[in-house]
Amino acid sequence: MTRRALAGSFAFVLLSVLAVAAATLVPMQDYTVHILVQTATFAIAVFGLTVVLGLCGQINLAQAAFFGFGAYAVGLGTADLHLNFWIALAMGAAVTLVMGAFLGMTTLRLGGHYLAMVTISFQQIVTLVMVNWIPVTHGPDGVGSIQRPPGLQSSQAFLGMCVAAVALIGYLVWRLPQTPIGRAMRAVRDNELAAGVAGINVYKVKVAAFALAAVLGGIGGGLFAGGFAYVSPDQFSFAESVVFITMTLLGGVASPVGALIGTGLLIVLPESLRFLKSVPGLYLAIYGLAIILIIRYMPDGIWGFVQHRVRRWLAPPPFTAAPAELVLSPAYQGAETAAALEVRDLAKHFGGVKAVDQISFSVGRGEVHALIGPNGSGKTTTLNVLSGIYAATSGSVRLGGRDVTALPPHARTAAGLGRTFQNIRLFRSMTALENVVIGAEHPGNPLAGGHAALVERARSALAFVGLEARANEPVTGFSYGHQRLIEIARALAGNPTLLLLDEPAAGLNPTEKMELRDLLRRIAAKGLTILIIDHDMTLVTEVAARITVLNFGRRIADGGAAEVLAQPEVIAAYLGSEPDVPAFA
Ligand code: ADP
Ligand code: MG
Questions:
Q1: What is the mean pLDDT of the chain?
Q2: pTM for the model
Q3: Cβ(89)–Cβ(74) under 8 Å?
Q4: Where are the domains of the chain?
Q5: What 8-state DSSP symbol labels residue 178?
Q6: Which residue's CA is the closest to the ligand 1 atom numbered 15?
Q7: Does domain 338-416+496-578 have CATH number 3.20.20.10?
Q8: Distance (Å, rounded) from C-alpha 17 to C-alpha 4?
Q9: Residues 245, 61: contact at Cβ < 8 Å?
């Protein structure tokens, strides 16, 4: 731990202890205690949304349902079953974990709008059950005489415990982005396709985020029930789910600090406007206007706004030692004699469009092989089938002799595939270094030494493409050409056996193209196998020894570079022009 981190942790613990002591000991009116218990317990549920929406980018419009689950578990558990508070709370947390994981597993293969609809439906079902399953839930009357834990009977002692829970859970959520699973969540939020190709099991990460959010909703709800001793279905309706989301967005979706600010504001603001009650509707209008103004002028929420202004003081210190030379030593998993890549009768149809039509080719180990063809001839689709983004309609793909045709993207990355995208797909909220760390971190690239080794590996990869000096800058600040280089570094950091490059030279100026050519030669000199798509015939002939040509999804030529480019059919495919005058570009 650095000195600064140590000082920060110390300050945080001190503040937390002071807050708990103040909540327990400072004399307060009942009303104030109520507001604070509500803020603390809501904040824990909003922390859940920080994880699922802020970190992982998945919408969850059922947080009030999970909150209600936890509240009813404590309510029914302590009042009807006479269980100890903690046991009831633990049961509530377990139930919400299972419900969250189940809801996530069944719906997270669906995209954005569907996910929103399913979570709304789930929320409505839970509310209906609370209202109508009267023998168990007591229906609309709700549950009363809810018990608190022994030793925390007084409102303020209970408040102190809630504040401690906020501090502890807030700390864990705050640390989460720096853990492997938290990094994976951020990558999924920033760019799902790139996350999969970087070796992340996207579905698993989403389910984990969803389940974690549900548990935090359940814990918040359980504490809420203990705080108020009475719960009823109307407290856990869809409208409350929307309030939770608003709290998250208002404070700043990406941080537990924002969650706490948003929660406090949305609870205190309406309360403090109550004096306007004499004019009906006025307080709601002011309240609504304030929220609209904040979200309009602070799109990253209040805390995001503040953070943006203090970021330069929080920038990590520059590295003092130069990184080690990048080692590319792909461990071939297949037979020693097998080609790096073997594509057999591969097809990909989109409805009636045969984007890739029964193509076969192979790439020898250590070779640079080019895949060329006019626009729309199926090159990118081929790459997407190779990397598992699309399932093949038929045919097979072997990587180092191993059949990977049925594997999802992250498993192919573990098996030795690395790639870049035609349209740059970086993780846009992260620095260059963080992007490359995610590329380095996958099960197929075991690095001894934990996070430090990952950072070292990522710095080596950035140094290899010439950008290590700017490692800690946000990727959005880099030029287009440099962003392409960061994508290449991200792929190299994963230590692939085969590197797939989709039009790396597109959009580069002549100087940058020459730098790219030199970089490709340096990669090839390290023995890495490359399959490159590009329109720049000068670049292709300078780096690639072998070429496969596609036209209308079919392979029309395959072999040594010079001989392929001389074939009449290839020249004809380029509208009769010389191949180095790409009329199609
Ligand atoms: P290239 O990379 O060679 O320019 P593509 O592989 O991007 O070509 O596209 C090949 C063909 O497949 C085009 O006709 C394109 O419209 C079609 N295509 C690509 N992706 C999809 C998709 N997701 N859905 C439907 N058609 C697609
Ligand atoms: Mg393409």
A1: 91
A2: 0.88
A3: yes
A4: 19-237, 338-416+496-578, 427-495
A5: G
A6: 376
A7: no
A8: 20
A9: yes
